[in-house]
TrEMBL record:
Protein's UniProt name: Sporulation integral membrane protein YlbJ
Top-level taxonomy: Bacteria, Bacillati, Bacillota, Clostridia, Eubacteriales
ATP-binding among keywords: no
Domain of life where this protein originates: Bacteria
Classification via Pfam families: Gate
Keyword S-adenosyl-L-methionine set for record: no
Transmembrane segments: 20-39, 51-74, 94-114, 135-154, 160-180, 220-246, 304-323, 335-355, 360-378, 384-409
Signal sequence extent: none
Length: 420
């Protein structure tokens, strides 16, 4: 009997293959856990320690703040003002300015979380949401400036190179993504057609939202904290899971096999074996990958380029977290994963350029906007979070100022044209 199209044998369809592969991998994972329980326990402890000491204290304030600001309607206020800036540059609604600022100052996966909430609230379309989450998910500046540059390399000046190349690459990707499905008529949110972008209109949008969503202060704070902690527990689960997976893969030699494959793909870059092993680990979890890269044998440039690639790719652990955040929406992960590959290579190229041009690198993050972060990089956790909040406020103020200047210029040009 001939096989039907799309069928293999015994009624198995091609679309069933991924599910069967995941089932096989899950069974193998459980077998390894039973066979090497000590290794699993050590990996889980390492993941838990990383989550509790680094991720939880650094992200919780931003999660709570973003929840409160969104529930108060500040996103609608910002969206009304920033439409003239965000639409022509990135082809996303003005609300994307809020996502961009908080994503560039806090770290993974908060950009995906806020974008998903915008999509659920109808403040961006499916295409705009996919554009947004693809260039607003960044590594935390505190992680790059403190944990990587100071803690791993012992060279604070490397923080400028790493963070500068990371942010520049994502901004360039954001500009390039404006052409992604640009002819899609359904790819533009309905509120983008509103031409009234004055401060008064923004305030009216804020007041209108607060009238519709009257929430007592106690309930607002309680829901924001509960939602933030729940999401961070979810992130912690992913970190622990991938820490265990990496330990098992190292034990069975899978990391070394992946490193060999990467050696063939990245042969033109001439990375030594230790750095290839770091890249292989970084494919799954970026913290471990960056640590191995900083300790690898090789030139400083090779190690820095490897770190830039790992942070740009972000690791399957982070990508799984973003996928979890956008679950329940119609947004697709394909463009996000593709841009992570592009981000990895573009960040490495930019880092090599900045490494060879120290004056440009020094001017990148010594601007007034980023000075709070640089001064707080060697301080306590409180000082670092405070510095991040200061930078977030200054970036947001800069975007609003650009929007207002844009509006003044447009009105002035229209007034001049009327004279003729």
């Amino acid at each position: 009997m001939p096989l039907r199209r799309g069928h293999l044998s015994n009624g198995i369809e091609r679309k069933d293959i991924p599910g069967l592969i995941w089932t096989l991998l899950a069974v193998c994972f459980v077998f390894c856990m039973v066979h090497r329980p000590v290794l699993v326990f050590q990996g889980a402890i390492a993941g838990l320690k990383a989550w509790w000491e680094i991720v939880f204290p650094s992200l919780l304030p931003f999660f709570i703040t973003s929840e409160i600001l969104m529930r108060l309607g500040l996103v609608r206020f910002i969206g009304t003002l920033l439409e003239p800036v965000m639409r022509p540059i990135f082809n996303v609604p003005g609300t994307g300015g809020f996502v961009m600022v908080i994503g560039f100052t806090s770290g993974f996966p908060i950009g995906g979380m806020v974008t998903a909430q915008l999509r659920r609230d109808g403040l961006c379309s499916k295409t705009e949401g996919e554009r947004l989450m693809s260039f607003t998910n960044n590594s935390s500046p505190l992680f790059m400036l403190t944990a990587v540059a100071v803690g791993m390399f012992g060279r604070p000046e490397f923080g400028v190179l790493i963070a500068g190349s990371h942010y520049l690459a994502n901004l360039l990707l954001g500009i390039g993504l404006r052409f992604y499905k640009r002819h899609d008529r359904e790819g533009m949110s309905h509120n983008s057609s509103n031409q009234n972008r004055s401060v008064i209109a923004a305030i009216n949008a804020l007041i209108e939202h607060q009238r519709k969503e009257r929430i007592p202060l106690g309930k607002l704070l309680g829901e924001a904290v509960a939602s933030s902690v729940t999401k961070l527990l979810n992130i912690g689960g992913f970190i622990i899971l991938f820490a265990v997976i990496i330990r098992i893969m190292q034990d069975v030699g899978a990391i070394q096999a992946i490193a060999s494959v990467l050696g063939l793909i990245l042969a033109p870059l001439g990375f030594p074996p230790d750095i290839l092993k770091a890249l292989a680990s970084g494919m799954f979890e970026m913290t471990m990958g960056t640590k191995l890269a900083s300790e690898a044998s090789g030139s400083q440039l090779d190690k820095l380029m490897a770190v830039a690639m790992i942070l740009g790719w972000s690791g399957l652990c982070i990508q799984a977290q973003v996928a979890s955040m956008i679950s329940g929406t119609d947004m697709n992960m394909k463009i996000f994963v593709l841009t992570r590959v592009a981000h990895a290579f573009l960040a490495a190229v930019l880092l090599k350029f900045l490494y060879s041009n120290e004056r440009i690198a020094g001017a990148l993050l010594t601007t007034p906007v980023f000075s709070p972060l640089l001064h707080a990089a060697h301080g306590s956790t409180f000082k670092m979070v405070y510095g991040a909040f200061c930078t977030m406020g200054m970036l947001l103020g800069l975007l609003i100022a650009l929007a207002l200047v844009y509006r003044i210029i447009v009105h002035s040009l229209r007034a001049v044209l009327r004279l003729f």
